[in-house]
Specification:
alpha+beta; 6-stranded antiparallel β-sheet; 8 strands
Length: 152
């Protein structure tokens, strides 16, 4: 198990600004995971369901929906983070960009850097620059920015 980064106050975030804080264990992408996600979002596109058709196409196999990797990030984040600030909310996810299709069997690593820490009337806002990479090749599959608010 990886050693956790412990955040006890706003200054702990400020000290980590510009640093990579997450380098998750690889997560294997499965047909079951993709299809469970698709059921929950009412996504019935064939590229997530029809494996035979996908294998005959340039895709090569079932692919993960564009929002699937960002949805996995909280799991990756909490592997290495312990935040002891009473209140937190995900304010948003910006600039989601899929750079390469993620097919079943891929192993994806989530990496996060604290891009910036902004003071707010109550608490702070932390912007996390997220990169999802293929564990085998190191190629970037997708990028996005998570924006979280923290306050007492």
């Amino acid at each position: 198990m990886k050693q956790k980064i412990i955040i006890n106050d706003y200054n702990d975030f400020r000290r980590l600004e510009g640093q990579q804080i997450v380098n998750s264990d690889p997560v294997e992408i499965t047909a079951e995971g993709i299809q469970d996600f698709c059921r929950g979002t009412f996504n019935d596109e064939w590229i997530h369901w029809d494996r035979e058709r996908c294998q005959e196409s340039p895709l090569g196999d079932l692919i993960a929906p564009g929002l699937y990797l960002p949805a996995l990030f909280p799991y990756m984040f909490w592997q290495v983070m312990e935040i002891n600030i009473p209140r937190m909310i995900v304010k948003g996810i910006d600039r989601i960009r899929i750079l390469k299709p993620v097919t079943i069997g891929s192993k994806i690593v989530g990496k996060a850097t604290i891009e910036k820490v902004l003071d707010r009337d109550k608490g702070i806002e932390v912007h996390y620059a997220i990169e999802f990479v293929f564990a085998e090749s190191g190629e970037t599959a997708a990028v996005c920015t998570f924006i979280n608010r923290y306050w007492d």
